[in-house]
Fold this sequence. Notes:
Number of domains: 2
Number of strands: 2
Order of helices and strands: HHEEHH
Strand content: under 5%
Structural class: mainly alpha
Shape: elongated
Strand order of the largest sheet: 1-2
Largest sheet: 2 strands, antiparallel
Amino acid sequence: MTIDLKNMDLKExxxxxxxxxxxxxxxxxxxxxxxLAAAREAxxxxxxxLEELVTGSGKKPKTKSVPKYxxxxxxxKTWTGKGRRPAWVVAHVDGGGSLEDLAI
Length: 104
């Protein structure tokens, strides 16, 4: 396919450029999908799922910790008991309260 670029006006050249960019993007997406399908098939032959190998040898993803403590006036504010204490927990304990008062 030969395109005579010298005889095209600016509008035609810009359209050609846009169409070429879109074709390249579609080509890359198509090839990416083909590679992914081939990888899934190859891994499946060994009894694995691709996602298991990519995320770290079949390890389960980390789950979010369950909150153990809640703000006494705003139950939307919670704390799991892990990590740094939120300011509202520190204020409650410093004010004479106990962690058990905030337990859910």
